[in-house]
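Researcher: We plan to redesign the surface later, but first we want a full-length starting point. Tokens attached.
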């Protein structure tokens, strides 16, 4: 895929509910959808408890994708920028019409989620999640990322 093109992926967490609006480079920072599901679950749980750390459910999901407790840093790393070339798009509780409307806003090539791993930037994953070589000996990248996301608030 040409680096100038935008990759648009749409996923469903629990049909007919679509996943959350994941702005930007998340496409380059995900090689599996499991961390996305964990972050979405944390966002939905925080909303149900009235304890969102951010202003909206969708922003909470982007924040939860990071292993950092700093909201601004999380949004900088996982949010949309002018240089964004990979985009994972969706919305909580979206109707088919709403998803179609969202997709019209994105210029690029839509690819299936099964290809997500081929777009993952391993160097960014290791940098952003501070993955150690010792961890990689006993688990894979996805396991380490899920651990960071799940244990961030502990």
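Model: Full-length starting sequence:
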């Amino acid at each position: 895929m040409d680096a100038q093109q935008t990759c648009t992926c749409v996923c469903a967490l629990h049909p007919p509910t679509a996943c959350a609006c994941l702005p930007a480079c998340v496409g380059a920072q995900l090689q599996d959808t499991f961390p996305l599901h964990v972050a979405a679950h944390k966002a939905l749980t925080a909303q149900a408890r009235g304890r969102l750390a951010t202003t909206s459910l969708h922003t909470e999901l982007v924040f939860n994708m990071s292993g950092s407790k700093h909201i601004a840093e999380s949004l900088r790393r996982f949010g949309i920028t002018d240089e964004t070339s990979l985009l994972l798009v969706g919305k909580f509780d979206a109707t088919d019409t709403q998803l179609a409307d969202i997709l019209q806003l994105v210029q690029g090539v839509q690819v299936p989620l099964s290809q997500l791993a081929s777009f993952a930037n391993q160097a960014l994953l290791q940098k952003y999640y501070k993955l150690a070589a010792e961890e990689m000996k006993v688990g894979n990248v996805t396991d380490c990322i899920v651990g960071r996301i799940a244990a961030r608030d502990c």
